[in-house]
Amino acid sequence: QVALVESGGGFVQPGGSLRLSCAVSGLSLDQIAIGWFRRASGGDDEVVSCISTNNGDTYYNDFAKGRFTITADKAKNTVDLQMNSLKPEGTTTYYCVEGERCSIYYGLTRLKTWGQGTQVTVSS
C-alpha cells in the first residue's frame, strides 16, 4: 500500500520561496506518477504539477508555470516541488497525490492515494 508524507510547508512573505517534499513508501516512483494538488478558494482541489519518472513527463498549471519546478529523486523515493515568487493567493493546503500517469496536457490521471497535506501561508 502506498503512503505519502508531505513536508516543507510554512509561512513565507510574498515573493519568497518554499520547497515542498513528498516521501513515497510502498511503491517505487517508476511504478507510479506523483502530483501536487492545492485546495482552491472555492473548495475544489486542482492539480498544480505532476511528474512521471518513467518517461520524464511533467505538467504545470497556469498558477505554477514559470515559478514552480517539480523534481523526483528515485534513490530517495521523494518528489519535491520548488515554489518561487509566491503570491498571497498561494495560501492554502498542498497535497501530494499518487496517480497512474502524468499527462503533459491534463495533469495527473486516475488519482489513488492522497497525503495528509501541508499548509502554505503567503503573507506580509
Overview of the molecule:
This protein has strands at 3-7, 10-12, 18-25, 33-39, 45-52, 58-60, 68-73, 78-83, 92-99, 101-103, 107-109, 118-122. The protein has 124 residues and is an all-beta fold. It is globular and about 40 Å long.
Record the strand order, biggest sheet.
2-12-9-4-5-6
Beta-strand proportion = over 45%
The strand count comes to: 12
Poorly predicted parts: none
What is the string of helix and strand elements? Answer: EEEEEEEEEEEE
Please, what is the average pLDDT?
A: 95
Using the alpha-carbon principal axes, give the shape.
globular
The SS-based structural class is mainly beta
| Helix-residue proportion | under 10%
For the largest beta-sheet, the strand count, sense and barrel status come to:
6 strands, mixed
Query: Count of helices?
Result: 0
| C-alpha termini separation | 40 Å
Radius of gyration: 13 Å
